[in-house]
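With this grant's support, we have settled on a layout for protein records. An illustrative entry appears below exactly as we store it:
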Amino acid sequence: MKSSHIDYDAGVSEPVIHKSICTGETTAGLIDRTTGKYTELRRISGEKDLIRFCKDAGIDRDKIKTIY
C-alpha cells in the first residue's frame, strides 16, 4: 500500500485512533476539535497500518490519542 500525505488543519482537526468497545475494530481518522465529530479515514489492522497513518498525518506514534 502506497503512503499518502493526509492534509488537515491542525487548528481545526486532530488525528486520532478510534477503537470500538463493542467489536474491537480499530480505525484512524480526524476528530473536530470544536464539535468532537469523528471522520474515519482508514481501517487499522495492525501496528504497521498505525505507523503508516501516523507518518502520513505527520504525528508521532507516541503522541496520537485513542478515543472509544
